[in-house]
Write a structure and sequence with these properties.
single chain; AttH-like fold; 13-stranded antiparallel beta sheet; ten-stranded antiparallel beta sheet; 25 strands
Length: 363
């Protein structure tokens, strides 16, 4: 059954949308909440992406012990929504979970996939409430806070976290409409919730401890996330220690050249500064080669933006995730530090790099 569901996931990522969905989905429009916190089943692909840095409670949160990721993916398949069978795989739900243990120098990760329905794999449309075989991300409508839960027997870790909002939503791109290439259909609806204050329980190899930290949540949905020339992307979302939030990304062609770029910066209680493609440069530095997949990933980046130049460095080289059992992808996703021009750490966040082991097929 698992192999069959993995094959369905691969087919769904490469299939065209049904004809009735071609005119729906992603168009420039104001985002509307709380509805846009929820799922958008008329679009091809969607994810809720939660990452953060954790430390034992009462310790210095600027010196993390762990990084974590919990991501849910919803994929619309080529099966018509009018198909009469309840068992038809009209929508798939997938999830990735990872824990970076800096002291042990180890990444633990797990993945799940299932067709949506039957109470086991669900993504609510009214607000954020995504669950898959016991893993869950839930938004509390009354407070705006989130609850994240996962338990991985294969990777032998569990998280039960409360994530409290401390800032307003950050609308990426043009008020939440984020271009991903020169073609108008290469775009997504995209918002972020940076500077989430985290408290909760981490269980590792059967031992539990209270943890605290900061997290970042992205929610993005699209029909064509990559431009025709792109084979992958480099992206970073960083919570700065002063309360600011920095996003940078670039999309790469097969020859390594940049097809599109962008990002944003928002200081506390100020309007966001949205970066145009010409305003962002990400220059790769030291390379880590993966012996498992052959991917060659930059572990350091020199980043030039309208608000300054920074160095971004991975805190652990081997944070590569082989997700070919669910989303049919291999990518690098890891806890990283942001340094200013003097070499001082000014922020922590996550760096994501795709298309290095093999081209990414999402468009």
């Amino acid at each position: 059954m698992r192999r069959r569901e993995s094959l369905l996931a691969l087919l769904a990522l490469s299939a065209r949308l049904p004809a009735e969905a071609q005119s729906l989905g992603v168009q420039p429009r104001p985002l509307s909440f709380p509805a846009d916190f929820g799922a958008h089943p008329d679009t091809r692909i969607e994810w809720w992406y939660l990452t953060g840095a954790l430390s034992p409670t009462q310790s210095d949160s600027s010196k993390p012990s762990y990084g974590f990721q919990l991501t849910f993916f919803r994929v619309r398949t080529a099966v018509s929504e009018q198909h009469p069978s309840r068992f038809a795989a009209k929508q798939l739900l997938m999830a990735h979970a990872a824990l970076t243990d800096l002291k042990a120098g180890r990444l633990r990760h797990d993945q799940q996939v299932a067709r949506m329905g039957f109470g086991l794999a669900e993504a609510a449309e009214q607000d954020t409430d995504v669950k898959l075989h016991g893993w869950r991300l839930l938004r509390h409508a009354g407070t705006g806070s989130y609850r994240a839960e996962l338990h991985s027997q294969r990777a032998n870790f569990a998280l039960a976290l409360e994530l409290n909002t401390t800032q307003a939503l950050l609308l990426q791109g043009q008020q939440g409409y984020s271009r991903k290439g020169p073609d108008l259909d290469a775009a997504s609806h995209y918002y972020s919730q940076p500077q989430l204050a985290v408290q909760g329980l981490l269980t590792l190899d059967g031992r539990s401890q209270q943890v605290q930290g900061k997290a970042w949540l992205d929610h993005e949905w699209s029909n064509h996330l990559l431009g025709k020339e792109a084979v992958g992307w480099d992206w970073a979302g960083i919570n700065l220690h002063d309360g600011s939030a920095l996003t940078v990304f670039r999309l790469r062609r097969a020859d390594g050249s940049v097809s599109w770029a962008g990002g944003s910066y928002r200081a506390p209680a100020q309007a966001a500064r949205i970066f145009s493609p010409s305003e962002v440069r990400m220059v790769p530095g030291r390379i880590w080669p993966s012996a498992r997949t052959g991917g060659r990933y930059p572990m350091a980046w020199h980043i030039i933006t309208p608000v300054g130049a920074f160095e971004l460095r991975s805190l652990l080289d081997d944070q590569e995730l082989d997700a070919r059992g669910s989303t049919a992808t291999v990518y690098w996703e890891g806890l990283s530090e942001l340094l200013d021009a003097r070499g001082s750490r000014v922020g922590l966040g996550y760096l994501e790099m795709t298309g290095y082991a093999e081209p990414l097929h999402l468009s």
